[in-house]
Amino acid sequence: MPHGAKSTGPHSGARLALARRAEFEALYEQHSREVWALAYARWMDSDLAMDVTQEAFLRLWKQWEGGDEIIQNPRAWLLRVARNLAEDYAKSAFRRNGTQPPELLNGVRSPQPLPSEMLEREEQFGQLRAILEELSQPDRDVLTLRYALDYDANAIAEIMGVNVAAIHMRLSRARQRVAERLTEQDKREG
Amino acid sequence: MIDELLSDFYKSRMPRPWPAAPVMASPAGNDASRRAGNRARFTLAASVALLVGLCWYFTNGSQPGPQGPTPQSGAGYLNEGSATMPPEFKKHTAPEPPKKSPMLN
Asked: Which fold is adopted by the domain A10-96?
């Protein structure tokens, strides 16, 4: 691991920097989607989740630069920082002022007219989004990791630090709840 | 059906293409900026030193040394010399003789 090591000369310093950058990019490639998924599950806002992801990785880099603390498990560190950042967002002025992220507008993000199928799909996604927002935070975490990243129950259990049976149960319950709510909405509209 | 809908929804929310890792200044870049900072500090210090030197020169350095007489030394400043009034100056400052009144003629 290059981080935490000290350079002894200009050439070794440059090599260390390159190795550190390569390791950083590998970590980003490996874990950035997980970080995004957890941030997205918190606020259901793709842009905000990406901001949180980038900020979490920037903090990891600064932590390496500072060298004050050796990060033994970067993945756990990143997920923890991302959760904290997402929570901090709740206290921010931006959130308090009630500015709506674009996705709150029923998923329609572009002012350009969309094809009718796309509009129908976005409307359906808007309904789904509203239903997902009513679920508990852990349920949203599980669903996001399962359907955004195609993680199986074992991988989700590892990230969330719970046993696999609990993940299966949570997934099943969340899916059932979403299906019931969609059926209710269809009946109301039909 | 619900699986497909959830999968489509979540995948549609993911940024595409996935953004690259955030770019930070590399340690090599830090060295360069540190060197530039040192250069700037050196230039600033040299400029301040030059300014102080010039100020000192114009206030103290251009006057005669401590051996020479100073204005504060009073009469000693003239080194016990004497001065004479130039003749042109005497001519201009001498009172003119009073003119005779034409009535007296």
From this structure: Rna Polymerase Sigma Factor; Chain: A (1.10.1740)
